[in-house]
Structure formats: C-alpha cells, structure tokens
C-alpha cells in the first residue's frame, strides 16, 4: 500500500517565514514536520512507500529525503555519530514525489499521485498534523479489513458549537475496535458507517459532532472519481466531494479517535503550541525546556 502526503500549499499563514522555507520543513523539536508524517505513514505493516505531492517551487523537500554522504562523513569525522545517523535515516526513507503544477485543491493534489497507487487502496495523511503515537492509520486499516476493504476515515468529537468549522459525518454506529466495545458513540474506538458528509454545518443542522481529521484510507473508486470531479467550494477540486459521490456505490466507515492524539501545526499558534507541548513531554528536551522557561519567570497567561 502507498501513502499520499499532500504538501503543495504555499504556507501563506506562516509568511514571511515560508517565503524561502516550506511550511512542511518547519521544525518540531529536532525534525521537520514532514518527517513525522512520513514516519507515521510508513508505520503500518504493508505500507512500503510515501508519496509526497508537492509543487516545483519546493526543492527543499526533495533534497531533505535524499542521502547526503558528505554531511554524514563530516559528522562522523567530528565524533557526532548520533547526528550522522539522523541524517542517514532521513535520506534512506522510501519517499517518492509527484508534482501539482497549479493550486487546484486537495482533491487535485491527491489525483496527481494516481499513477503511484495503481488502482489499489491508499492512505492520505495531511502534512500539517503530527501524531506521535503513529496509530491512526493502523486503526483505519483494521476497520477496513473488517469491512471487506472499505474506505475508512478518522473522525474526532468536537463541541456542538464548533461543528461549523469542520466537515462532519452523518451515519450510524456500526461497531467498535476490539477492546472498545463499551465506548460511547463519540468516544475513541467507536466505528460508524457513513451515510453522508456535510461541510461546515450549523449546530442546528449538524448530523453529528464528529469531524473529519486529516487521515484517510480510501478505495480505488475515490481516486477514479477524482479524475472527473468538478471544482467545488472555493473553485477547487475537493476530496470530500469525491468521497461523497463514492457513497452511492460503496460503503465507507469512520473510526473515532481521541482529539488530543494529534497536534495541528497548520497555523503559527498551533505550531508553537506543538513545539512547547512536545518539548515538555520528550525526555530528551523536557529538563532544558522547563529550565529555560523558569529562567524567564515561568509561563503566564
């Protein structure tokens, strides 16, 4: 199975930083965001390649995932073996690239990698969402296997007054992940069969409080439908529109995840919070992080 990671956006919210550094290359602790996503994509057994869909104006992504023997050698000569190993690891990952030459939406970006998936089911991981446990894709694959290879998406609960910010699913409870049989309908481990996808509904019209997180396991039909998908909201080819069309011909499921299992790095505030929260929990950085905070008198709201 292949995993597609869309990473062709301009990173407008981070300007002027992203004028010369792609948003996906901004660091979270000691690695760029994109490496966390690639590592997650390759975590499940059976996933052998990550396809990054980028734009021609982001050569830094291609360069990052290529071997750099000169840098590795220099680091080893200077006794910095751990850094050399980290550089070697990034350069040895099974990563391939496809290009989106014009910004026509998420659906169009995914369709740009159609040749790589070759008529088989595929994962999609949005490139600005970091999941340290790397377990969401495995859960989706588990649900798909239990339902004849159906498409599966990850969803999470939000407060009713927040549904207008998201794409929300309609459907009914269809089961649970093993060990989660006692989970409520909107608790982690609950599995739903999807009957509809509603984009940014009002609280009164929302069919549920379960919003779509940036992780998908999609059937070949969805990729086929993206081939002739008309532009939708914002004049762009929307993945959600092709997914909604697929419901007329095949089943689709959703697995509920913990909304705190991932970190959203798609905005400056989210990226800053991600770095702080992960630094506070990582044993490599926690002591120095809190020492630096305490030197400034602690954090104040």
Strand content: 15-25%
State the order of secondary-structure elements, H for helix, E for strand: EEEHEHHHEHHEEHEEEEHHEEHH
Sheet of most strands: 9 strands, mixed
Number of helices: 11
Query: Radius of gyration, rounded?
Result: 20 Å
Shape: globular
Structural category = alpha/beta
Number of strands: 13
Question: In oligomeric terms, what are we looking at?
Answer: single chain
Low-confidence stretches: none
The proportion of residues forming helix, as a percent range, comes to 25-40%
Q: Termini separation (Å)?
A: 46 Å
Strand order of the largest sheet: 5-4-1-6-11-8-12-10-9
What would you note in describing this structure?
The protein has 301 residues and is an alpha/beta fold. The chain has eleven helices and 13 strands. The protein has helices at residues 33-42, 59-64, 69-77, 81-92, 106-111, 114-117, 136-146, 220-226, 239-246, 268-281, 286-295; strands at residues 2-6, 27-28, 31-32, 49-54, 95-99, 122-125, 129-130, 151-157, 167-176, 190-199, 210-218, 252-256, 263-264. Helix 3 packs antiparallel against helix 4, helix 8 (220-226) packs across helix 9 (239-246) and helix 10 packs across helix 11 (286-295). The protein starts with a strand and ends in a 6-residue tail after the last helix.
Short summary:
By secondary structure, the chain is of the alpha/beta class. Helices cover 32% and strands 23% of the residues. The relative contact order is 0.16.
